[in-house]
Design a protein that fits this description.
Elements (H helix, E strand, L loop, with lengths): L3 H10 L31 E5 L2 E4 L2 E4 L8 E11 L4 E11 L2 H7 L9 H8 L12 E8 L3 E9 L3 E2 L2 E3 L2 E5 L16 E4 L3 E6 L7 E9 L3 E7 L4 E11 L4 E9 L2 E3 L4 H12 L45 E2 L4 E7 L3 E9 L6 E7 L9 H4 L10 E7 L5 E9 L6 E7 L11 E6 L7 H4 L4 E11 L4 E12 L4 E3 L1 E3 L6 E3 L16 H9 L17 H17 L3 E2 L12 E3 L3 H7 L1 E2 L1 H13 L6 E5 L2 E7 L7 E4 L9 H16 L11 H8 L2 E4 H7 L7
Parallel strand pairs: 3-10, 4-15, 31-33
Antiparallel strand pairs: 1-2, 4-5, 5-13, 6-12, 6-14, 7-8, 7-13, 9-12, 10-11, 11-17, 14-20, 15-19, 16-18, 16-20, 21-22, 22-25, 23-24, 23-26, 26-27, 28-32, 29-30, 34-35, 34-37, 35-36
Length: about 700
């Protein structure tokens, strides 16, 4: 008799990846065709601009090893917050053979991870903690829904990323596309607008997931999907915190079983297969805007397995689920549940107000500057008001950070719903109240504060909304390198705002004094500047003079704490005057000091930031041979030439792709690939990032 272990060994290591239950060497002739003939399958980046990235709808290919896993959902809860917002929570764990899972993930099907790699290649360094991201969960959504935030916890906060571009989920037991499909096989997939969630998945570990949904309509239709063959849900709970009447329904749905894929995907595949490799035009892509898709999401006949059942036939007992009590539900063969919630909004409900605030500490030094850039909005507070009445509403909206800012005040008129004139019955409004005079100087430590929000109906003079929100103000010398966007749960790169610490002048004239003293170390005994961009040799001499002066004055590197308060992705930066007074600083302090001294001479530096370190540079970012790099932390320990050599080696190691001898790859690629970033002071000033003199 064959032992269980022997069976497992044969079944896991020797079976053909086509899923035919035959040993690999003896499998059908199609085995050799089980890799797509085009890799990557498709490139889902249509274009990029200053306002973000335009992605196309994409495919989500689940690894075959998921077919051998089980998922236990201990509890799922669905909470209705308003007719526009809903929260889904679940605590779950994936079960299976850990060793087999880790060793055989994506075995013989590396093509499946191309789409994931393309997606993560465009994500900022905020997701650098993910090592082997896997799609562990998905939400199929109707046209009016989008995911606006997600959190994952395993006792500690876990990194989680979501991608809203997939429009088709191809299950693990399905064949790869662009291959010969066996005559007795079909593709198995869900053809739905989907948001996929990624993390470094570990087996036998309990996770707690929280996802927030937002609707631009008055209904929520969605299907949560754990992408394994067997899912057991112990209990699903429902809560209604909206003070509205809600009708709900839940039913089982199954993936589609077809010989071909949807038309849009088939067309894209054909474009890939027939495309001239020397032609640069991309394959057909459909923009993955948030409100694409179908309404309703599911076809009851087609997507539930009830096709052919007439009104006289009995609907299976397990088809409709009681949304007041769902327990001990088992989902096999990639079935899942479709939920639909409909709201009854009575005539007494005149309007709906939704307010979003900053979900993290506020970097007070760059707080106001951020608001000037389209890329960095939604930093403090956003109002979303819908008029549900048949008459126009007129509101006064007030916001302030109590004791720290002046009030932001706006009056808005919002047209009635269904007004017949094409006027919008919805209003978005963002507030960023300005800091009071001299407040920045006073915030030397982290401080707790309150955002006060108030909305008054100008017709009745009644306050219709009033609330305070707690917030943490960071010290004036603390920088946040990345910021979480409120609506998309993506991270903004704020590294260019380090230039707010770079200042050509100061109130006490200390920077001018340093420049005057350093000029004595110049070969001409002065800093003569014609106003033209300096040559390589001229810039080199300026840096040499400044470095020599600071070295003789006893300036030195001190290893101060990376941050003065424990906030993720943050850094304490001491202003240049203080560094001059103390004659000491850490890497970023000294780099900012050099950049400030040079800017006063008309030279715009490059600030090179890598994980845990920073140094300064200057020159043509397209040619390493026309660049100067200087390690500022060696002041007092190394001579100028040695400091340059150390910095150049650091640059080559952290900012250039392997195999690149001369040219630097683009700033965006170095940032996204290595977690390193080049801040160009001249470009930052052109964008409008100014020095904050305090």
């Amino acid at each position: 008799m064959t032992t269980t272990k022997a069976k497992e060994k044969v079944g896991r290591n020797d079976l053909c990846p086509c899923g035919s239950n035959k040993k690999y060497k003896k499998c059908c002739e199609l085995a050799k065709d089980l890799k797509p003939s085009t890799c990557p399958i498709s490139d889902m980046i249509i274009g990029q601009g200053e306002h973000g990235e335009i992605r196309g709808v994409s495919e989500l290919y689940l690894p075959s090893i998921f077919d051998s896993l089980h998922c236990l959902v201990k509890e799922m809860s669905i909470c209705v917050n308003s007719f526009r917002q809903m929260t889904i929570k679940a605590n779950f764990l994936f079960l299976g053979d850990k060793d087999h899972f880790e060793k055989n993930l994506y075995k013989n099907e590396s093509w499946k991870i191309y789409a994931t790699e393309n997606f993560f290649r465009t994500k900022p360094v905020g997701y650098k903690n993910l090592k082997k991201p896997l799609p562990f969960f998905a939400l199929m959504l109707n046209k009016s829904l989008q995911v606006i935030s997600a959190k994952l916890n395993d006792g500690n906060d876990c990194s989680i990323v979501f991608d809203s571009s997939p429009d088709i989920i191809i299950t693990p037991n399905s064949h790869p596309p662009l291959t010969r499909l066996p005559s007795d096989k079909d593709y198995i997939y869900y053809d739905k607008k989907t948001t996929a969630f990624y993390t470094d998945l570990e087996l036998d570990k309990e996770y707690f997931l929280e996802v927030e949904l937002e609707s631009c309509g008055v209904n929520f239709e969605f299907a949560p999907f754990f992408p394994v063959s067997n899912v057991k849900i112990n209990e699903i709970k429902f809560e209604n915190n909206s003070n509205l009447g809600v009708d709900s329904i839940a039913n089982l749905v199954i993936p589609q079983v077809e010989r071909i894929f949807p038309n849009w995907l088939e067309y894209k595949f054909q474009e890939l297969l027939n495309r001239d490799p020397y032609r640069r035009s991309p394959p057909l892509t459909i923009p993955a805007h948030p409100f694409r898709g179908k309404m309703p999401l599911f076809d009851i006949n087609k997507d539930t397995g009830l096709s052919g059942i007439t009104s006289r036939d009995k609907i299976p007992d397990n088809f409709l689920l009681n949304t007041t009590d769902i327990k001990n539900l088992e989902l096999v063969d990639y079935k899942t549940i479709r939920f639909c919630f409909l709201f009854m909004i009575g005539p007494e409900r005149k309007f709906d107000i939704s307010v979003r605030t900053l979900e993290g500490p506020l970097p007070i030094r760059i707080y106001e500057q951020i608001q000037n850039f389209t890329n960095y909005q939604d930093v403090l507070i956003e109002y979303d008001i819908i008029n549900l009445d048949v008459e126009e509403i007129n509101f006064k909206i007030e916001t302030e950070i109590t004791d720290y800012t002046n009030k932001s005040i706006d009056e808005v008129k919002i047209a009635p719903i269904n007004n017949g004139k094409g006027e919008k019955a919805r209003k978005f409004l963002q507030h960023c109240p300005r800091l009071k005079k001299d407040v920045l100087e006073q915030i030397v430590n982290s401080e707790k504060a309150c955002i006060y929000s108030k909305i008054t109906d100008l017709k009745s003079e009644k306050v219709v909304f009033e609330k305070t929100y707690n917030i943490t103000l960071l010290p004036k010398d603390q920088m946040i390198w990345e910021l979480n966007d409120l609506r998309s749960n993506t991270y903004y790169n704020l590294r260019d705002f380090v230039c707010a610490w770079v200042k050509p002048n100061d109130k006490e004239g200390l920077l001018d004094k340093v420049r005057a003293e350093a000029s004595r170390f110049h070969k001409n005994n002065s800093f003569g500047f014609s106003g033209q961009r300096p040559t390589y040799e001229e810039a080199d001499e300026y840096l040499r003079s400044i470095y020599s002066y600071l070295s003789t004055e006893g300036f030195n590197y001190v290893n101060r704490p990376f941050t003065s308060i424990m906030v993720a992705n943050s850094q304490r930066i001491v202003n240049p005057e203080t560094v001059i007074k103390n004659k000491s600083g850490n890497c970023i302090d000294l780099t900012v000091l050099f950049a400030s001294i040079l800017e006063g001479l008309g030279i715009y530096s490059l600030i090179l930031i890598m994980p845990g370190h920073a140094f300064i540079g200057w020159g043509d970012t397209k040619d390493i041979n026309k660049m100067i790099f200087l390690e500022t932390t060696t002041i007092g320990r190394c001579n100028y030439e040695e400091a340059k050599k150390i910095a150049r080696e650091n640059f080559i190691k952290n900012f250039i792709f392997v195999g690149s001898n001369n040219h630097i790859m683009s700033n965006e690629m170095t940032f996204k690939t290595f977690g390193s970033y080049i801040v160009n002071l001249e470009s930052a000033r052109e964008e409008g990032i100014i020095s904050m003199i305090n």
